[in-house]
Structures are given as structure tokens and as C-alpha cells.
Amino acid sequence: MVLLEYKELELLITRVREISGFDFSGYARPSLLRRASRYLTKHTMNLPELYIHIEQGGKAVYDFIQEMTVNYSEMFRDPDFFISVRSEILTYLESYPAIRLWIAGCASGEEAFSMAILLKEAGLFDRSLIYATDLSERVLSSAREGVFSLGHMRTFSENYMLAEGKNSLSDYYHVAYSKAVMDHNLRKNIVFSLHDLTGDGVFNEFQMVSCRNVMIYFNLEQRRKVFKLLYESLGMFGFLCLGKRETLRYSGFEENFRIINGHLNIYQKIK
To answer: Could you say which architecture CATH assigns to the domain 79-145+185-269?
Structure first.
């Protein structure tokens, strides 16, 4: 495996920013170093050859950025999170005539579909709209199709049961050509679109924002910028959901939220 050094990685970050405008400088270095080294090994390149490749611009640099970003999730990942959303958030939001949710960093759409199922079982789906965004158009294209392998669905079904789902997960998809295809009625209230948390701005006001397992890839300065974006995207008394390894600490917005669930890092905007 090709192993880059940190000083080489910094030069690569600068070059990608100059070519594409995409800035990796806020991402955690160990993760970037592993991914860049893996990219070079996979494509049998050394660093000078990578520079020549990405300097073509266009698809070459775009594909490199896609492989450098993280795009993995599961349906009903962390089942206790969805139990808490049902009992502590949806019971609060049920009084709203319209509900807007934002899944930031949605990967292939697993959490968006999970949230759609949760809303449907709570009787709130028809007045809800889920915005699911990611940096990668490749994974968004997959998310829009709503197609998953049957092997993954076994894991997703286990998560769903642990999340105290009211039915069987198989009620929400059909099988075609050995793939699981999510119900069209679930997809109609989900909007999948491109959004870069590190560079793009506020695009709506939400009652709930889920940005789980995304902050861990940013450094402190970048996290603060993203927290500002999430704060400004939430309506008053809206809910912010982070991953189990993430926290509002050092965000600069600690006083603007109250803790709903300290273990799951669920917060409510209070000022």
C-alpha cells in the first residue's frame, strides 16, 4: 500500500482546493491520510501521477473528491436514537401543521428512509418533508433510486426491530432482481440534493436537523462553522441530533440549546 506523509497530504489538500475549489482543510488528517493512501494504492498511482490526474479537472478531480469523502450508513443505525426520536421529538412536533427535517450527510439515503418510516408510523409523514443532502452526487443518485442489497436489508431489519418498529421492515420495500426497492410512497416526501456543509449556506428553516457521524471528520475550526450553519437552519425550539461520539462542547453554541438526551447528543434550540 502506498503511504503518504502528512506534509505530502497538506500539499495535496492545497492543490485540490486550487483546482476544484473544494476545501479538505477542515477534515481530520488521519482519516484523509488513510483515504488518500488507499486511493493511490487502488489506482496504482504515486503522488506525482495523482497530481497529473487531478489537474485534468472535471470528472478526474470530482471522482477523487467522491472517494475521499465518507459515505457509509445503515437504516435505523443506533436503534436507541430512533426510539428517542419517536418518544422525545415526534411527540413534540406532532402539533406542527408542517414539519421539515434535514438529514445532513445522508450518504445513500439510509437515515432518510428510516426517518420517513418513523414519521409514517407516527402518523406525521403526510405533513412532513425530509431534505436529505450530501456532498457526493454519486451516492445521492443511489439514494434517489432507493435500492439496497438484500444482504444489507437483513441488518437493517434487525436494527428496525431493535428500534421498536411497529411493523415489519419488509412492509416498506419490495424485492426485484434480488434487490430491495423502497416503497415509492416513502420516496415522495424526500428531497435528495447536493449540499456542502463546509461551503454552502442556509437553504431552509427546519424543525429537526440530524447531522450524525459527520462532525468527527472535521477539525475544531471547521466544526464551529458547521455548527453555526446548523444553528441558523433550525427554527426556535427545533431539535439538533448529533452522533454518539459528537458533542456541542466547544461549538460556541452550548448556551443556545438544552440537552434532551445527553447519551445520544440530542439538543433543542432555546435561543
So the answer is: 3-Layer(aba) Sandwich (3.40)
Q: Is the pLDDT of residue 49 over 90?
A: yes
| DSSP of the chain | -----HHHHHHHHHHHHHHH----TTB-HHHHHHHHHHHHHHTT--HHHHHHHHTT-HHHHHHHHHHHS-----TT-SHHHHHHIIIIIIHHHTT-SSEEEEEES-TTSHHHHHHHHHHHHTT-GGGEEEEEEES-HHHHHHHHHTEEEHHHHHHHHHHHHHTT-SS-GGGGEEEETTEEEE-HHHHTTEEEEE--TTT------EEEEEETT-GGGB-HHHHHHHHHHHHHHEEEEEEEEE-TT--STTSS-GGGEEEEETTTTEEEE--
The mean pLDDT value of the chain amounts to: 92
CA–CA distance, 148 with 136 (Å, rounded to integer): 18
In this prediction, residue 32 carries a pLDDT of 92
The pTM is what? Answer: 0.83
